[in-house]
Design goal:
binds pyridoxal-5'-phosphate
Length: 436
C-alpha cells in the first residue's frame, strides 16, 4: 500500500517511509492512495482463526512489498502477546474487549505493532528516534512497547504533572533506549514541540526523527486488525446488519474501522460515540466543522475539541459524502448517562465497563432506539479501557469496589523524568542531545 498526503495526490511513499517520516511536507496527514481488497482473506477465516494468524495474513497486503508472510508472522508474535476478545452479552449485542494489552487500553494494539515493525525496518543497523507527546497512560504504553527494541530511541515529552509507571532501568543513561523529558507546560506544548522538532530538518535528519502519536500511520493502520478479527468471529452466525459503536476522541479508532470497511469488510455502520465534546457531530451530518471549547468530562480520553485525525476523516467525506452520511452515525452522551450506563451494565450483565466504553454502549442503545434497529441489527461495542483504570468511577456507578489487577498497580508507581525543561525547541533539542 502506498500513501499520499491528505493535501496532495503526490508524492507517493511506501508504508515504511510514511512510518519513518510521518509528517508530509505540506502539513497534511498520510492516507492510503488506493484501496486493497481484504475479501479474499475472509473466505478462509472463521471463528477458529487466531488474532495472530489474521495479522500474519493481512499485514503483508497493508505493507505491500515491504513484508513477506514469514516476517509478518514474526512481527505478529513480537507485537502481540495479547488479543482482542469478543463477548456475546445479549441478543445481537457484543463487547469487543480491547484492553487486554500491557497497559489496559486499546492503544496498546497500534503501539505494539508500530514498535515491532520499526525494529524490523531498522534491522540493517539504521537508527530512528521516535518522539511522542505523552499523557501518563499513553507514555507507559509506549515505554512498554518500545523498551529494548533494536535501533529505536523513544523520547517521551510529558506535560507538567506526575510521571508514573516508567522503569528507570530502561532509561538511556542506564543503558536503555527511553528518554522521558518533562516540559514545563501543557500537553499542547508537548505536541507543538514534537511538530517543531520534526520540522527542524537539521535535527530531524541527524537523529532520523519521527513521531509515535496517531498522526503516524504506523499506529493507525494496525487498528484495522481487531475490526477484522471481530468480523471473522461473527461472520458465520450473523444474520441482519452489523454496526460497530466506537468511543471517539481523536477519531483514530473510528478511522481504522472505516478503512476496514473501505478495504472490503462487510459492515453496515459505525456509531461515532462522543461525550459532551461533540464538535464532530455537525460535520458528520454534513455541516462545516466548527470546533467547540473543550469540556472536561468523566470520560477524559474523549475530551478533544479538534481531533488530530480530522483531516483523515474529512478525506472520506470529500471522496463520497452521501455514502459517508449513511454509514457514520454520531451520538453525544452526557456524564450522567455515562454513569447510569456503567450501573446498568453491571446490574444487567454483571460486568464492569469503563466510562469510555459506557459512552459507546449508551450511544449504541440511543441510536438503535432512534433508528428502530431492534431485532435485525447486531452491534459490537468497542471496550477501549480496562474498567479498573477508572476504579473510583466504577465504584461510584455500581456501589461495588473493583479489584485492580497487579499489572495496573505497577503503572501507577511514581517516577521522575531525566530532564525538566521550559517549553522551547532549543531547550528540548539540547536536552535530547545531552543524552549521547
Ligand atoms: C484514546 C482513547 C479513546 C479514544 O480513541 P481515539 O482513537 O482517540 O478516538 C477511547 N477510549 C480510551 C480508553 C482511550 O484511551
Amino acid at each position: 500500500m502506498q500513501f499520499r498526503s491528505t493535501k496532495s495526490m503526490f508524492p507517493l511513499v511506501s508504508y515504511k517511509d510514511a512510518v519513518l517520516n510521518c509528517m508530509p511536507d505540506d502539513g497534511g496527514l498520510y492516507v492510503p492512495c488506493k484501496t486493497v481488497d481484504f475479501r479474499q482473506f475472509f473466505l478462509n477465516m472463521n471463528k477458529k482463526t487466531t488474532f495472530n494468524e489474521l495479522v500474519t495474513a493481512i499485514a503483508p497486503s497493508i505493507l505491500e512489498g515491504g513484508l513477506n508472510s514469514s516476517c509478518a508472522s514474526r512481527i505478529a508474535e513480537s507485537a502481540f502477546d495479547f488479543k482482542p476478545e469478543l463477548i456475546d452479552i445479549d441478543d445481537g449485542l457484543y463487547l469487543l474487549n480491547l484492553y487486554n494489552g500491557p497497559t489496559g487500553v486499546f492503544k496498546d494494539f497500534g503501539i505494539a505493532f508500530m514498535s515491532a515493525i520499526l525494529e524490523e525496518f531498522l534491522k540493517d543497523g539504521e537508527q530512528a528516534m521516535i518522539l511522542a507527546a505523552a499523557r501518563p497512560d499513553t507514555g507507559v504504553s509506549m515505554a512498554h512497547a518500545f523498551r529494548g527494541r533494536k535501533g529505536v530511541l523513544l523520547v517521551l515529552l510529558y506535560p507538567s504533572g506526575q510521571l508514573r509507571g516508567l522503569d528507570s532501568s530502561s532509561f538511556v543513561q542506564n543503558g536503555g533506549n527511553i528518554i522521558p523529558i518533562q516540559i514545563k507546560g501543557t500537553f499542547d506544548d508537548c505536541q507543538r514541540l514534537v511538530i517543531e522538532t520534526i520540522n527542524d530538518r537539521d535535527f530531524s535528519e541527524r537523529y532520523n526523527v519521527t513521531s509515535a502519536n496517531t498522526m503516524n500511520p504506523g499506529r493507525l493502520f494496525p487498528q484495522i486488525f481487531y475490526y477484522l478479527y471481530a468480523f471473522t468471529q461473527l461472520k458465520n452466525k450473523l444474520c441482519g446488519d452489523l454496526v460497530f459503536s466506537v468511543p471517539s476522541g481523536n477519531f483514530g479508532n473510528l478511522i481504522a474501522g472505516l478503512y476496514a470497511w473501505k478495504f472490503g469488510m462487510p459492515v453496515n455502520g459505525f456509531i461515532a460515540a462522543m461525550n459532551a465534546n461533540n464538535s464532530m457531530g455537525g460535520f458528520i451530518h454534513g455541516k462545516p466543522f466548527i470546533p467547540k471549547p473543550l469540556i472536561y468530562t468523566n470520560s477524559p480520553a474523549l475530551d478533544v475539541s479538534v481531533p488530530i485525525n480530522y483531516e483523515r476523516l474529512a478525506s472520506f467525506y470529500t471522496e463520497a459524502p452521501a455514502v459517508m452520511r449513511n454509514i457514520v452515525y454520531p451520538a453525544s452522551i452526557t456524564d450522567e448517562t455515562t454513569l447510569e450506563t456503567m450501573e446498568h451494565v453491571y446490574k444487567k450483565y454483571n460486568a464492569y465497563i469503563d466510562p469510555h466504553t459506557a459512552v459507546a454502549f449508551a450511544a449504541a442503545m440511543e441510536t438503535s432506539d432512534r433508528l428502530k434497529w431492534k431485532g435485525n441489527t447486531n452491534i459490537v461495542v468497542l471496550a477501549t479501557g480496562h474498567p479498573a483504570r477508572s476504579a473510583n468511577l466504577a465504584e461510584k456507578a455500581t456501589g461495588k469496589a473493583i479489584k485492580t489487577p497487579d499489572f495496573l498497580k505497577e503503572l501507577w508507581k511514581k517516577c521522575d523524568p531525566i530532564a525538566l525543561i521550559p517549553p522551547q525547541l532549543d531547550a528540548f533539542e539540547s536536552a535530547v542531545a545531552s543524552c549521547f
